[in-house]
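ASSEMBLY PREDICTION REQUEST
Request ID: AP-0331
Submitted by: J.K., bench scientist
Number of chains: two
Total residues: 230
Priority: normal
Notes: Please return the full assembly, not individual chains.
Input sequences:
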Amino acid sequence: KQEVTQIPAALSVPEGENLVLNCSFTDSAIYNLQWFRQDPGKGLTSLLLIQSSQREQTSGRLNASLDKSSGRSTLYIAASQPGDSATYLCAPGVSGNTGKLIFGQGTTLQVKP
Amino acid sequence: DAGVIQSPRHEVTEMGQEVTLRCKPISGHNSLFWYRQTMMRGLELLIYFNNNVPIDDSGMPEDRFSAKMPNASFSTLKIQPSEPRDSAVYFCASSLNPLAGGRETQYFGPGTRLLVL
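STATUS: Completed
Returned structure:
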């Protein structure tokens, strides 16, 4: 059974810092991996999707890497801003072309002005 | 596109009552997912459909929960009878996979906050 761990659970940083959020998963036979953002009281917004054959994906100030063999992914946020404050969730996709995602508990980020 | 639409946004009911949650996926998407989020258990997949057919319902907690997708633009999640432990936020998500299953990015609705007293 796939288990997903995200470290740290919470993070508070001053504006402008570069951040790394970590995600580890126990079953390396994944189809892809997605990073989501969730604002308080809202639904999830997809940030990046990495296929299992890829090593990284970039979107603006966000960069996600994937090391499938070691069961790890990182989300790098450059030059953090107060608007980045949210919970970030990692979700590896179960192998077999099912679309099924297993979510971690998330990292809650607060960026202080 | 309006995105994934869920209704109601909030629901308060008494234990034993029937609850029906509704979801309209993004037009053209062929996979639909129902999730439940609680502080204790995080985000859990309950069931998902591909081309209106239920593919995996292993996450449905018990027989009190049922889900249907009568057509490509509508799905329901029903709880009967409801219990206080069903209190959670229920999300619907949809995605597009031209081949089969839901490979592509999942788009989430705003959720339904359910409180069972």
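REVIEWER COMMENTS: The interface with chain B takes residues 31-32, 34, 36, 42-46, 49, 89, 93, 96-106 of chain A (CB under 8 Å).
SIGN-OFF: pending second reviewer
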